[in-house]
Each structure stands twice: as C-alpha cells, then as structure tokens.
Amino acid sequence: MPAVVTSPASRVRVFPGSYQPSVTFTYSPAIVCSGQPVTFTAIPVLGGSAPAYVWRVAGAVAGSGNPFVAAVANANVVSCTLTSNDPTVCTLTDTAVSSHTMVVLPTVTPVITIHTTHSDTVSYLGEIITWVAEVSFEGSAPVYQWYHHDGTPITGATNRTYSVAMYSTNDTLYCMMTSNLPCVTSDTVYSNTGITYGAYLFVQQANQNPFLEFNLYPNPASNEVTIDFHQSLTESFAIKVTDAWGRTVITENVMPGKWQTKLALGDIAPGVYFVEIAAGKNRLVKRLVKE
User: Fold this and answer.
1) Percent of the chain as helix, strand, coil, to the nearest 5
2) What is the pTM of this model?
3) Radius of gyration of the chain from Cα atoms?
4) Residues with Cβ within 8 Å of residue 129, at least 6 apart in sequence
5) Half-sphere exposure for 286 (CA within 13 Å, toward CB)
6) CA 147 to CA 157: how far, in whole Å?
7) How far is CA 252 from the centre of its chain?
8) Where would I find the H helices in the chain?
9) What tens digit of pLDDT does each residue of 64-77 get?
10) Strand 188-190 vs strand 161-165: parallel, antiparallel, or unpaired?
11) Which of 271, 117, 283, 285 is nearest to 216 (CA)?
12) Residues 201, 283: contact at Cβ < 8 Å?
C-alpha cells in the first residue's frame, strides 16, 4: 500500500471574475479652440499601483503618461488605453479603452464697421441721424459702447445703433464691440471713425443763395472730379475737401463768373471725403468717394 504524504495547508485567495479595469478621461479647457493645447486626464478604475497609458489621436499613437497634452483638430477621435497592474484583475484582459470625438472651434477675428442710414446732408439744425454698427463674429450677447473722437464714452450709447441730433459739424465718433464668442483673436475691437458732417444750411439758406448748389461727377472718382454749379457764380467761393477725420486735404478758391471747376484727386488716398463750398455763412457739403 503506497505511503500517504500530507503537505502543509495553504490559503488560496480567489477574486470574483467581475473585477476588471476601466478608464475614462476628462479634458481642459472644456471649449477647445483651433491650435489650442488640450490637457487630457485619465481616470482609471482598478488601474493598480503603476498603470500604463497609451494615448491615440486620430488613430495614431500620440503619447503616454497621465495627464497627456496635445493639440487636436475638429472631429479627431482621442482614445486612452489603460493597462492595469492591479492584482485583483482576474479577467482575460488587463486593459481598458475609452475614446471621445473632439469638437474644435475655429479661431475668428471679430469685425465692426459703422455707417449712417442718413443721406449725405442733413436738412435742418437738430435733425436726427442714426449710426449703425455692422458686425461679424459678435456672439450671442455682444457689448457695445459708442465714443466721441477723444475717447470719451457717449452716455447711454450701448446698442448696435446710435441716434444723435445734428447740431454741429465735423463731429467724429466710433464704436467698440466686445464679443462673447469663445474662440476669437481679440474679444474687443473698434470700428472705423464716423464723421457727422452737417450741412444743415442746405435747406435753410440754399434758397437764399442758389449759387451754392452744385453737382459732383464722377462720384466715385479716381484722378479728378468735376463740380458743376447750378448758376454762374456772382461772387468768390471757397472749396474745401476734408477726410473722414476732419482733416483738410484740398483747398481752392473759385472766382466769379464760373459755371464749373475741376479738382485734382491724384495726391489723396482712396476713401470717403467731404466737399464743402462756402461763401460767408452759407455752406453746402456733399460726400465724395475717391477710388
């Protein structure tokens, strides 16, 4: 009869097979802009004391470790593969994978320009003109502030439009817009400068002195503009051309007896100008576009 040998007793620890690793991850910032680095942080479950990570972007291995930083493009799939060394993991695999499709917003530049809905001249002292800001990439809740030319905020002028009673000439203003879009090169931008160049004497005094009335052509003009007077001049007139900032760029005196004169425009830059003809207290202003 064979001998029976009894070995020392030992303990065997059995873990339930349902224990298996998993992984999720977060990223920051929550809204990702084009070209912006993104920090991905893995959150392991049963990763063990020394888990290993492999990060992939659009299917290609992009890094390891935790956290992981990368710049990603819109619609890129970012995935994290966890390899656990947790001794309680008793399944056929010690790895877990999590993935996410990224939404990346383009970076844009907000733009604001202003113009008036009024005609080239106002008809009387105190007439209301309205300025309108045309904007792009302003977001859902932009902030507006209109300013005088010296940088002083205009009280209460915080909308996309601004209406003002015309009492003086050569007043300039501009508008600031702050966009609330998340991905902008600058959230605050400034408009072009507008000029409230009033010719309110057009109705009140042109009838008293019809020689002020004139036509400009061509308009827009390139090298030269012709001024036709409605009647032959019986007195001397001064012609002044100013730019949108109120700076005088052309001056000329017109002698009596003329029906027409020409202004050379070759030395001024393309843009919007204002042609003023004045005699004593009478004046008339019309807008001219230089191409």
Assistant:
1) 5, 50, 50
2) 0.57
3) 37
4) 116, 117, 118, 122, 163, 164, 166, 196
5) 16
6) 8
7) 41
8) 201-206
9) 999 999 999 999 99
10) unpaired
11) 285
12) yes
